[in-house]
Write a structure and sequence with these properties.
Largest sheet: none
Order of helices and strands: HHHHHHHH
Helix content: over 70%
Distance between the termini: 23 Å
Radius of gyration: 17 Å
Number of helices: 8
Structural class: mainly alpha
Shape: globular
Length: 251
C-alpha cells in the first residue's frame, strides 16, 4: 500500500476515536468525574508521546535549532488561533458541562467550536503522516497516544455540545468531518514531505508538537482539573507511564 494511502488510513483511524467518544457522550450519561479522569489520562498519554517520540525524534533528525524554533512557532500559532476562536464562542469547546454557549447565546459559536476542534486535531494527524516517512510503518506509540486521547476529547466536547442544545446532526457532523479531515491531513503531510530533508521534517514535527502541547495546556488539562482537582496530577502521571511503556515495548 502506498505511504500516502497508509497515512490517510491511520489519520482516519485516529480521528474516528473522536466519533467514538461523541457516541458515548450522546447515548450514555457519563459522570463528570469519569470524563475528567479520562481527559487527564489522555493528557498524560500525549505528553509522553511528545517527550519520547515527537520532540526527541525531531531533534535527532534535524538538530536542536530547528526543533526549538518549530516547537515555539507551533505553540505560538496555536495560541494565537485559539485566542481568536475564543472571542467567537469556542473557548470552552472541550468542556462537558454548561460552559459552551448555545447558538442563541452567541451567534456563530457553533462554527467557531467546529473550527477549534479541527485546529486541535490537525497537528496530531500531520505527525501520523510524518511517522510513516521513515519507512518503518506507522509510529505505534504516537498512534496509540492520539487515539487514546481523542476518545475523551470527543466525549467531553460532545457532552458540552449536547447540553448547549446542539443537534445530533451537528455534533456527529462535526466529529465525522474532523475524522475525515484528520485522514486528509495525514495524507497531505506524507505526500508533501516525502523526500524532504531531515531538518524540514524535524521542523514540521516540532511545529505540530508545540501546537499539541499548547492545546493540552489550554483545553484538556483545565477540563480535567475542574472535576478531578488534586487527583489530576496522579491520573496524568499514570497516562504518561502507560504511553511510555507502549513506546518502550514497541521500540
Amino acid at each position: 500500500m502506498p505511504i500516502w494511502l497508509q497515512a490517510g488510513w491511520w489519520g482516519l483511524v485516529a480521528g474516528a476515536a473522536l466519533v467514538v467518544g461523541a457516541l458515548i457522550a450522546w447515548f450514555v450519561q457519563v459522570p463528570q468525574r469519569v470524563v475528567a479522569s479520562i481527559m487527564a489520562f489522555g493528557a498524560g498519554v500525549l505528553i509522553s508521546a511528545l517527550a519520547f517520540d515527537l520532540v526527541d525524534e525531531a531533534e535527532q533528525q534535524g538538530g536542536l535549532t530547528p526543533t526549538v524554533v518549530g516547537f515555539l512557532a507551533g505553540a505560538a500559532v496555536y495560541v494565537a488561533a485559539n485566542i481568536a476562536l475564543a472571542r467567537h464562542g469556542a473557548r470552552h469547546r472541550k468542556r462537558s458541562q454548561d460552559q459552551q454557549p448555545s447558538e442563541d447565546e452567541d451567534s456563530g459559536s457553533g462554527a467557531a467550536i467546529a473550527i477549534g476542534a479541527l485546529l486541535d486535531g490537525i497537528p496530531e494527524s500531520v505527525v501520523l503522516g510524518l511517522s510513516l516517512l521513515s519507512g518503518g510503518g506507522v509510529g505505534v506509540a504516537v498512534l496509540a497516544a492520539i487515539f487514546i486521547s481523542n476518545v475523551p476529547e470527543g466525549l467531553s466536547s460532545a457532552a458540552g455540545m449536547k447540553k448547549a442544545g446542539r443537534s445530533a446532526a451537528y455534533v456527529f457532523g462535526v466529529w465525522g468531518g474532523i475524522a475525515v479531515a484528520s485522514g486528509l491531513a495525514a495524507l497531505v503531510g506524507a505526500v508533501t514531505l516525502e523526500g524532504a530533508s531531515g531538518a524540514t521534517i524535524a521542523l514540521i514535527t516540532a511545529v505540530a508538537a508545540g501546537a499539541i502541547l499548547a492545546m493540552l495546556a489550554d483545553t484538556m488539562i483545565p477540563e480535567a482539573f475542574e472535576n478531578t482537582h488534586v487527583l489530576t496530577g496522579l491520573i496524568t502521571a499514570v497516562g504518561f507511564l502507560v504511553a511510555f511503556g507502549i513506546e518502550r515495548l514497541g521500540a
